[in-house]
Design goal:
mainly alpha, two-stranded antiparallel sheet, 20 helices, 2 strands
């Protein structure tokens, strides 16, 4: 009994009611397993592309594979919108996990039979991600249906934190497996994690009320119109979009930097991403513990800081230095999503918040995948080191431009960004 009380004291009060919900706890287990698979695939998707592709065009195939693992979700969000937007959240989540599990499960089977080619690999990855945007919408809609209003923020925070935490263990496990087993086997394990989540969702009694509708195209269009009428929030969306775009090439260039520049095994790539994840979790927790922050200045500093952490790659710094900088970069990068969402929640009219967040999600779905797609040609043309350093340099420039605009908006007589720090509630 005393041990239970001590454990409860360690859990912040905001999370106790959420974790007391039995259904939510079961879902969290499924999400954690699925996120672990995603963390492993973070390394395996690019690594298998390197193994399959001709050396001369490896950068193009790595960029294509990484983009195919995410970008078709935008197409699926638009093409299947009319059919899926009225589907209950539970079915959306099930459909996405079944499709993900089936297409990814074919990858190791094709590899074992010798039939897996780079084009087939990209097609299978694209098929696996086709419903992923709807699965994400179903997941957060399900949480909204399951929990009362005052518990949703805590639930969303816990679920999103699991995603970052998975980048700690997932890449480390994948780094060992791609070195001593195969990258295809790792994607097979990722498929099994989606099957696990699908079975768990199917066997759990979940709300089917449909009272909270998933995001559809009408809501997204209305939200974009509302954002255009709020210059500060439109500026926030633009900063976030370009920040994510410039992050995309890192996912392509880093594995090629490990293999081509350093001639190192997959364990080093796993180490990079594991330490990045540790930094992101620690950075997010540290910033989340602060009560008041000037949100706009902190986000601009994050953009500049992340860019600076990539510059050592471009100047041929020793591996130990780039590993340390990438870890620090994770700590800098980690709080950005929470801060940007908090700012939008604070500045959006309450009656339009859902539509504006929907528009934000729809727009950001294109940013990082587009960046990874551009990362392939850039890495082929410039090389991995120059691509990483160049991404950092342009990101710093983005932060400097945002800083200039922020200072200009705060001149006397101009309305816009509020000078006072906005509260962050923990």
């Amino acid at each position: 009994m005393k041990g239970t009380r001590r454990l409860r004291r360690l859990v912040p009060a905001a999370y106790r009611p959420v974790l007391a919900d039995r259904v939510f706890r079961r879902l969290v287990i499924g999400f954690a397993v699925s996120y672990l698979g995603d963390g492993m695939s973070f390394v395996a998707v690019a690594w298998l592309a390197i193994e399959l592709a001709p050396e001369a065009s490896a950068g193009l195939w790595v960029g294509g594979a990484v983009a195919a693992y995410t970008l078709p979700g935008v197409v699926g969000a638009l093409v299947f919108g009319r059919r899926l937007r009225r589907m209950p959240a539970r079915r959306l989540l099930l459909a996405d996990n079944v499709v993900r599990g089936v297409f990814l499960g074919v990858v190791p089977l094709a590899w074992l039979t010798g039939l897996l080619t780079p084009p087939l690999y990209v097609v299978l990855l694209a098929g696996s991600s086709l419903l992923h945007a709807w699965g994400s919408a179903g997941k957060y809609t399900l949480l909204a249906e399951l929990l009362p209003d005052d518990q949703r923020l805590a639930a969303n925070t816990l679920v999103s934190s699991l995603s970052f935490a998975a980048t700690i263990a997932g890449p480390a496990i994948a780094g060992v497996l791609v070195t001593y087993v195969s990258a295809a086997a790792v994607l097979g394990l990722d498929a099994l994690t989606y099957v696990f989540l699908a079975v768990l969702v199917a066997r759990t009694r979940l709300p089917e009320s449909g009272q909270v509708s998933p995001v559809d195209r009408t809501a997204a269009r209305g939200g974009l119109g509302l954002l255009r009428s709020h210059p500060e929030l439109l500026g926030l969306l633009m900063l976030t979009w370009f920040f994510n775009l410039l992050y995309g090439p890192v996912e392509v260039a880093l594995p090629l930097h490990v293999t081509d520049d350093l001639h190192a095994p997959g364990t080093l790539l796993g180490l990079y991403w594991m330490l990045f994840g540790i930094g992101a979790v620690l950075g997010g927790l540290a910033v989340g513990a602060l009560r008041r922050l000037p949100l706009w200045p902190v986000m601009v500093v994050i953009v500049i800081g992340w860019g600076l952490s990539l510059l050592p790659f471009g100047v041929h710094a020793p591996t130990a230095v780039t590993v340390a900088c990438f870890t620090l970069g994770g700590a800098i990068y980690g709080p950005f999503v929470a801060l940007s969402v908090t700012l939008m929640q604070a500045k959006s009219p309450p009656q339009h918040l859902a539509a504006m967040l929907a528009a934000r999600s729809a727009a950001l779905l294109t940013a990082s995948p587009l960046g990874t797609a551009l990362g392939g040609p850039l890495t082929t043309a410039l090389g991995p080191r120059a691509t990483l350093g160049g991404s950092g340099l342009v990101t710093v420039a983005l932060g400097v431009v945002a800083c200039v605009l922020l200072l200009a908006s705060r001149r006397p007589g101009r309305s816009g960004i509020e000078k006072r720090p906005a509260p962050i509630r923990t």
